[in-house]
Design a protein that fits this description.
Immunoglobulin-like; transmembrane helix; signal; three-stranded mixed β-sheet; metal-binding; single chain; 164 residues; 3 helices; metal ion binding; disulfide bond
């Protein structure tokens, strides 16, 4: 019985020492429409689960739009940061490195005022196991008795003199 407990504890400790593997998701902002005017980015983001480590990709015709990361006030009021902070490649990938609210706007003309802006909430990495992995064992011993054992359950260690 004690051997089973030691084995279970060893297996749990070994499993906890391996990093939890999760695959990052890449989101194309606006899906097939990309980063453009006349698209509801808030509706697009609704229901999506953005996690730390995921990537968002802004796809647009180079020169037609830009992408600025802004704060909540910049988002609400369409305040453009300095031009040298703009992403302008037409295929801009942003890795979501921290949890929290994130805001992005287009800095071309009045595109932001016309609705070309995105607000998302990034979640901290979940400490969930892969769907293929079994759940962790219960801390209750296999005997079903409360742990630690009662004094009456303890037995002295007896050594077999003929163990060799």
């Amino acid at each position: 019985m004690a051997f089973n407990r030691v084995c279970i504890l060893f297996l749990v400790a070994a499993a906890m020492s391996f990093p939890i593997m999760s695959s990052a998701t890449e989101f194309i902002v606006g899906d097939d429409s990309g980063w453009t005017l006349g698209f509801d980015y808030q509706a697009w983001a609704e229901g999506k689960n953005f996690q730390v480590g995921d990537k968002i990709v802004f796809k647009y015709l180079e020169g037609a739009h830009t992408v600025f990361k802004v704060n909540g006030t910049g988002f609400q009021n369409c305040i453009k940061p300095p031009a040298n902070e703009a992403l302008t490649s037409g295929n801009d990938t942003i890795v979501l490195a921290t949890a929290g609210r994130k805001w992005y706007i287009c800095g071309v003309g009045s595109h932001c005022d016309m609705g070309q802006k995105l607000a998302i909430t990034v979640q901290a990495p979940a400490l969930a196991l892969s769907p293929n992995m079994p759940p962790s064992p219960s801390p209750t011993p296999l005997s079903g008795k409360p742990y630690p054992p009662k004094v009456a359950d303890k037995r002295p260690f007896l050594m077999n003199p003929h163990w060799w």
